[in-house]
Amino acid sequence: MARTAQIAPGPNDKAEQRLRKVLKRLCAERTALSAERNTPAENGLGLVRRVIDEIDETILPRRIDIVAGGKVVGRMIASHRRLIALDTAHPAPEGNATPEGMARAHVETLVHIGDNHPQASLCCRGRIENVATDSQSCSVEQLAACTVAGDRAAPLDRFLGEIEDRAQGWIRLEERTTILGSAGSQDLVARLADLGRLVVEKRMYKGSLSRLKRSDPTCSVLPFSPTLRAVVASDSDDYVIALLRHEDVARTLADWQRFYGAKSPASP
């Protein structure tokens, strides 16, 4: 009798990996799952992943709070592996009313919360009555797809997005010399480009900027004028150079620490 050919699932089979993850969590102790839920997320994308895991295991309608610093900073309703509603103090990004559009808006909102509240955690408030699915609803798969896309965004780009509104001018360099974008007057951008070339030239030599030789992400503050400082942020061979008022420097360095964790900014 001929044998039926069987193909064993490979190590990258997504369905197999998902099944293993679910079975592992089903076998876990309740106290371990509660501790995981209450462990603070380190940043915005970390919070999004916690939310996805929580919603992925939610079938009956449930209310879930996002808590940071002892305060509720967001409220969610989840049901049948869907995020039904997200209510926060932060204005939701504008987007289309399709599930994919709402998923992108929800992910952006959660990333904003997690980046501004690095110690945010989840608190399940229990089951609620059946709720109707409205235009804000999106599936956990749609949230996960948006998270993968957001995860590809480099922390350096997210750092630039946070500070560009307060910068007097900025320039974004990729692979040391390729200019990806800039803002400010033509003269200011030209001076920032000159500063960028100086930083790259000095990178491999000893001197006042020798700390930029490290491959680890760094953030330095350099004098530019009596009222302005140049913030030079580098991640490998990519740079953001921004001009800021002296009073905005401390806030900008705090933003750098939020995006890059415990790595401390350097300063002259």
Question: Can you lay out the helices and strands and say which pair or pack?
Answer:
Layout: H1 14-26, H2 30-38, H3 44-56, E1 62-68, E2 71-79, E3 82-88, H4 99-116, E4 121-127, E5 138-139, H5 140-151, H6 155-163, E6 169-174, E7 178-183, H7 186-203, E8 218-223, E9 228-235, E10 238-245, H8 249-260
Antiparallel strand pairs: 1-2, 1-4, 2-3, 3-5, 6-7, 6-10, 8-9, 9-10
Overview of the structural elements:
The protein has helices at residues 14-26, 30-38, 44-56, 99-116, 140-151, 155-163, 186-203, 249-260, and strands at residues 62-68, 71-79, 82-88, 121-127, 138-139, 169-174, 178-183, 218-223, 228-235, 238-245. It is of the alpha+beta class. A hairpin with a 2-residue loop joins strand 2 and strand 3 (82-88).
Question: TL;DR of this structure?
Answer:
Helix content is 39%, strand content 25%. With 268 residues, it is α+β, with helices and mostly antiparallel strands.
**Uncertain ranges:** 1-12, 206-214, 262-268
Report the strand count: 10
* Series of secondary-structure elements, N-terminal to C-terminal: HHHEEEHEEHHEEHEEEH
Shape: elongated
Structural class: alpha+beta
Contiguous helical run count:
8
The largest pleated sheet is described as:
5 strands, antiparallel
The rounded distance between the terminal residues' Cα atoms is 79 Å
Residues in helix, %: 25-40%
Q: Roughly how many Å is the radius of gyration?
A: 23 Å
**Averaged pLDDT:** 77
Beta-strand residue fraction: 15-25%
